[in-house]
Design brief:
Structural class: alpha/beta
Number of helices: 7
Mean pLDDT: 96
Low-confidence stretches: none
Strand order of the largest sheet: 1-2-3-4-5-6
CATH superfamily: Ribonuclease Z/Hydroxyacylglutathione hydrolase-like
Shape: globular
Helix content: 25-40%
Strand content: 25-35%
Distance between the termini: 33 Å
Number of domains: 1
CATH topology: Metallo-beta-lactamase, Chain A
Largest sheet: 6 strands, mixed
Radius of gyration: 16 Å
């Protein structure tokens, strides 16, 4: 397996972990969750000389998706994901933004929705799509079992889990997704989160107070 390299680009006042991931041999890659500050993302792409082929979204929240339309137009690449059940969030991104005093944002219309069991290509490596609702109804995560690596968005964090106190959130669904789909992965399975530092499954199994 070719080596994948990752650059985390913190964006927006929420310090969301937008990820630029690429194949070190071919320079082909993708952007995950461009929540804003598109100029910073484009600079990272140019600095690393990455040939971005796709933008992937884990879910429809403002801080993860608000820059997707602008970045898609700049790079002329498709927006892929999340699950269709987050369409209502992507459709109302301008209204979400207004609550934080941000004007002029566009709704996001993905070129392709994702569903449980789909595969996506990041830098020539195949990631499995898992539907992990609770934080949002259509949240997905991306898992590469061969590489022991995943992109979890706002489902599981180091010593924490995603918020479920939205009107559409569901705490039981989130815990079930974590237990049934993520904690079954090996202890040394590493993942990046939507916010904060990366972790691995073993560390969370041992010390995360929300799932112990």
């Amino acid at each position: 397996m070719a080596e994948l390299k990752i650059q985390i680009i913190p964006v927006t006042p929420f310090e969301q972990n937008c990820a630029l991931i690429w194949n070190t041999e071919t320079s082909e890659g993708a952007v995950i969750d461009p929540g804003g500050d598109v100029h910073k993302i484009i600079k990272a792409i140019k600095d690393q000389n990455v040939k971005v082929s796709s933008i992937f979204l884990t879910h429809g929240h403002l801080d993860h998706a608000a820059g997707a339309t602008e970045l898609s137009k700049e790079l002329n690449v498709p927006i892929i994901g999340p699950d269709l059940r987050d369409k209502f969030l992507l459709d109302t991104l301008p209204e979400q933004a207004l609550r934080f005093g941000v004007h002029g944002l566009s709704a996001v219309t993905p070129d392709r929705w994702l569903a449980e069991g789909d595969d996506i290509n990041i830098g020539g490596e195949i990631f499995e799509v898992l539907h992990c609702p609770g934080h949002t109804p259509g949240h997905v995560v991306f898992v590469n079992r061969d590489a022991n690596f995943g992109i979890f968005g706002d489902v599981l964090f180091r010593n924490s889990i995603g918020r479920t106190d939205f009107e559409y959130g569901n705490h039981e669904d989130l815990l079930a997704a974590i237990k049934d789909k993520l904690l079954v992965l090996p202890d040394d399975f590493a993942f990046i989160c939507g916010h904060g530092p990366a972790s691995n499954i073993g560390a969370e199994r041992r010390s995360n107070p929300f799932i112990r």
